[in-house]
Structure formats: C-alpha cells, structure tokens
C-alpha cells in the first residue's frame, strides 16, 4: 500500500479554522488600512509633483512620516499573511488526510504535494487548484469522489488567487526600479489594486474552507453514529 493511501486518524479542523477565520478578518481590516494609507501617500506624492511644499524641511518630515507609516503597515500585513498562510496550508494538508480517512481512493495528490505545488514555479498556476478540487470532491462523497460536481467557489477562489499573485509580482518588479515621482505613483496605484483584490480573496478563501470543513465534520459525525449503531447491534442478543 502506498504511504499516501494508509489510513490516518481524522483531524478535527474546528479549532484550526477558527484561527484562520480571525486571521482572514484581520487581513481584510489591514487591507482597508493599507488602502487608506496608500491614498494618503498618493496625495503626498501629488503635492510633491505640484510643488505644494514651500519648505524643504516640512516636505522631508512628511515624507519620513509617510515612509514609517507605510513600513509599519507593510510589516504587520506581511506577518499576518505569513501566519494565516501557514495555517491554511496546514488545513489543506489535514483536509487531504481526512479525505483519505473517509475512504477516498486513487487521489492524484498526496497531502504533501497538495501544499508543495504552491512553491513550484509554473505548475503553481494550476496544480494547487487541482489538488483543492480533489479535496472538495472527496469531502462531499469519498466513495465516488471523481464524479462529484465542483462548486463555483473553487473557480472564483482560484481566479482571485492568481490575480492577486500576478498583481503582487507587478508591484514588486515596479517598486525595484521606481525612482521618479510618477513611477512611485504608479507603484502606489498597483499596490492599491493588489489590496482591493486581497479583500474578496480572503472572503472566498473562508467560504471554501468553511464548506470543505463542514462536509468533513458531517462525514465524521455520520461515521461515529454508524459505529455506535454497529456496537449496539453487536451487544443485542440474537432472536
């Protein structure tokens, strides 16, 4: 038997998804904060470009205050993103294991590869989606998962994930070569686009996690009920 097919104990996702929910909510809050901060920065850059400042000292002071604010928000957002990302990957790993626990056979993606493909260039554009699709299907009907229709939630989730990744890459590349005020203003606008996209991404990610977890918890409860019924029938004397 392949290692990935070995029976594993069910991992209750209840506590994990509570933490994920809180962190995703915090991500949304920070995204709105970042949008507001970027708007303030854009106004500052506009004032620089239009020569509003008559005092160089005041201009330097406002620029330094802006940089400190932006850096603080960026570090906080990055920290929340890393922690929530790690917990979501843990959830994906456990959800894949749980699907196997319920009897799903011949799944193409092991628990390890269901998260490993996120870190491999090129294939990360579609493999993680396929792995999540398997988890969704196997969580609905482990005995015959391959014929299960997939919810539109998955397609929407993956669209926003790819869009957010592409815009994030654009921000990174543009910021490395931005020196003049117009270039920095363009980076600012693309950053705002990234933050706007991250809001529906967080919301649809939570819907995806909630639906899969709910299905797996229902399977677990039904399994426990059947086990108890079997134990009772074994204890009852035969007629």
UniProtKB/TrEMBL annotation:
The keyword Ribosomal protein does not apply. Keywords: Membrane, Transmembrane, Transmembrane helix. It comes from the Bacteria. Residues 61-213 form the DUF4328 domain. The chain crosses the membrane at residues 16-35, 74-93, 113-129, 150-172, 192-209. This is DUF4328 domain-containing protein. It comes from Alteromonas gracilis. The lineage of its organism: Bacteria, Pseudomonadati, Pseudomonadota, Gammaproteobacteria, Alteromonadales.
